[in-house]
Write a structure and sequence with these properties.
The chain is built from three helices and two strands, in the order H-E-E-H-H. It is mainly alpha-helical and about 90 residues long.
């Protein structure tokens, strides 16, 4: 994806340096400023589930709250996209 001339000029004026990219997303400031505390907690929980193979509650995936199942699906989808790029 190519930047427009306006965007190129703005980046030049601000002397912006790309600090992070994820697919088509390019960040010119610390990405942590975009991550809320709630998102950090979800990310931490997904990493924990992935590493320990233990869910939050008993009863398999059927015993988990919907928000956790959705967060896990998003997490795994992002991991797969990153692996495909390697």
């Amino acid at each position: 994806m190519e930047y427009s001339e306006e965007v190129k000029e703005e980046l030049k004026e601000k002397e912006a340096q790309k600090v992070f990219s994820l697919g088509d997303v390019r960040l010119y400031e610390c990405p942590l400023s975009y991550i809320t505390e709630e998102t950090q907690d979800l990310m931490r929980l997904c990493f924990l589930i992935g590493e320990t193979k233990q869910l939050l509650y008993g009863g398999g995936w059927g015993g988990q709250p919907v928000w956790l199942v959705e967060a896990w699906e998003i997490y795994k989808g992002e991991l797969l996209m990153q692996l495909k790029q390697v």
